[in-house]
Every structure is written in structure tokens, then in C-alpha cells.
Design brief:
Blueprint: H1 29-32, H2 42-47, E1 50-60, E2 63-73, E3 76-80, H3 88-103, E4 113-115, E5 118-120, H4 125-137, E6 143-147, H5 155-175, E7 183-187, H6 194-204, E8 209-213, H7 219-228, E9 232-235, H8 237-240, H9 246-249, E10 255-259, H10 260-263, H11 266-272, E11 279-283, H12 289-301, E12 332-334, H13 342-350, H14 354-381
Helix pairs in contact: 3-14, 4-5, 11-12
Bound molecules: magnesium ion.
Magnesium ion binds at residues 187, 189, 213-214, 236, 257.
Amino acid sequence: MPTPSGAPPTSDSSLVGREHDFGFGLPPERVTSTVPSTMPELADLLHDAVPFALPLTRSFRGLQMREGLLIRGPSGWGEFAPFEDYTSQQAAPWLAAAAEAAFGTWPQPQRVEVPVNAIIPAVHADDAAAIARSAVLDHGCTTVKVKIAAPGERLADDEARVASVRDAIDVAMRGVGREGRGKIRLDANAGWTLDEAARALARLVAYDIDYVEQPCGELEDLQRLREQVEVRIAVDESVRIGGVAMGELESIADVVIVKVGPIGGVRAGLRLVQDWPGEVVVSGALDSAVGLAAGVTLATALPRAPGACGLGTGALLAEDVVSTPLVPVDGMLGVQRVSPDLDALMRARGRLDDDQARHWRERAVEVWHSGGAELVEQAIAGGV
Ligand SMILES: [Mg+2]
């Protein structure tokens, strides 16, 4: 079993929010240097890599457990955790993002922390209300994203969930003396046809919706939907899977969701949105604390301060690779580099049998040979 070597891993959460010390235990030039780190070969990526599995508090995307591979290099730790339904080509940017974190440099943050939203999976309305209340009361979040249009669900299920969340966050916010209403965002994960989306949103807008994320998969459908409904439209899958050029999306979407893994790194994410005139929301992919730290880094490096980012998913992990999951405090997450805690990492490794662990190493090898090598090179060279 691969084990980390060298300096003992530590959690650097005590350093959250410390301005002008973004290295967090590493020399600052390792994070913000203009000198690129060494270009890793495949063997370098795998040398200290640790496959992991983290139990979820609730089923998410049909998963009970979040799996992936943590990669260690001279700059720190990176996360390679593409979902199983991603092809090797689609997973190639995830490897580049992990390599950038471990062997490359990250851009200079423009702010020390960012607001984040909580996330509510496609659960029963009562459970949704409980999560929404906890988001406000325990984590200080005033924006929540609700999953809708899940396979096998009806519009009545979605509406019950959204209604229950609206009531729960409004009551919770009043309870803690917060002004105004909480924001609700919807994420359909491209689960609707145009007609289904139009019918559903005609009802759901009554709950005061900030935006709906990827209601349909096809761009033409999004375009037509935008003319039919009074709600802002965000694109996620169109960018991270469809690879649609940003210029093409300007007439279709109000908000673009950018994720470090699927887009190939922090610097790739910054480049992607540099000319986007609308709102940018940095989101995650149910990452461990290591992956979330990369997302927070992108959000803190954006030229314009972002709205609430989709990085509140640490609350869905029953255990993380650090002793305390990276969850929002007062609705915010601070920029930091995260290193796993050895005990938590070994527990995460121990949840996989040897075949499952081998699968993750083999996946990285396949991905490297399916375009990953080129993207890794770009991600590391992008730090120049
Ligand atoms: Mg989404």
C-alpha cells in the first residue's frame, strides 16, 4: 500500500484567514512563484498517490461513498476523483488539476475567503428542510442549492423539496435575526426536456429562485427556455462535459459554473472565465478537503469577488481526509492548502480493498494515456 513519506501530513486549518501567508506551511513562493515546478512523469504522479473512499451522510448522485486518488508532490496534495461515468478523455482534466496542485503553482489569491452555498441532495422534503436549517444555523450559509429533476422523481417531489427548503431557510434566518430572504438555487443536472423544464420552472419560480443550473442538456433547449421562463439560467455540464466555447454561451446563460477538476486546474479555470461578462460561480464535485481547497483557491483568485460558491459539500461527508471536514464557518471558506491527516487518510485508504485501490491507480494510468499527459504539461507550464 502506498504511504505518504517525508514530513508528516498535517491539517493547516488553523491558518485559515491569515492574510499574506498563503503558503500555509510551505514557502510562499511554492504557491505563487512564477518559476514552474518540475514537470511530473506518470511515475511521479503515482509515487506517493493514495486511493481513498469517504462515506457520505446521504446518497448523492447515487453514491454512498466518494472515491478518488490523492496525489502528492513538492507543492502539496492534489485530488483526482472523476466520477465513474466519465470517460478517460473526460477525466483527463481532473488529472491535470491534481498535478497542478501537487507539482505546479497556484495563482495569487485576491481575497482570503469566499461565501459558499450549502447543497441539498434529492432527498425527501423533511430531510431537505433539516439540511437547510442546519446550513443556516450551523454553517451560517444563506444560499442553498437544491438538486431537482433526479432520475425517477416527479415534479411533485421537486416542488415539495423546494417549498420545504424555502420555508426552512426563511424561518431559520428569522430565528437568528438575519435580514432578508435566503437564496435558493436549483440544479437539474440536465435532467429535463425543454417541455419538462418549462412546466416545472413555471411552478418553481414561485419560491423565489436565484437561478436554475443546467435545466436541459442541449444548448438550443436552453436558449428557447430562456425566452419562456422568468429565471436566470446557469450552465455547468455544457462547460465541464460539453466543452462548449464560452462565447457561444453568452446568449444562453446568465451564470457560468466552473469547477477545478473538470476544467483542468485553478489556472485553467481562471483563463476560462476571464472574458465571461456574467456571474461566475466556482463549484466543487463532492470533493474531499484537498479538492475543496483547490476550488476555494480559484474562487479567491477571480478578479471580481464571486457570489456564494458551490463549495459547501464538506457537510455531506461523514468523514474526510482531514480530521475535521472543510465546512463553512459563518457561511465562508478561507483560502488554504490542505494536507491530509495521516490517521484520516489511512482510514480512507482502508475502506477500499486492493482491487478497488488498484482500479484508481489504473484509472490514472489510462487517463494519462488518453490526453492526460498533455493536459498535465499545460497545467504545470501554465504557472509560468
Ligand atoms: Mg451542476
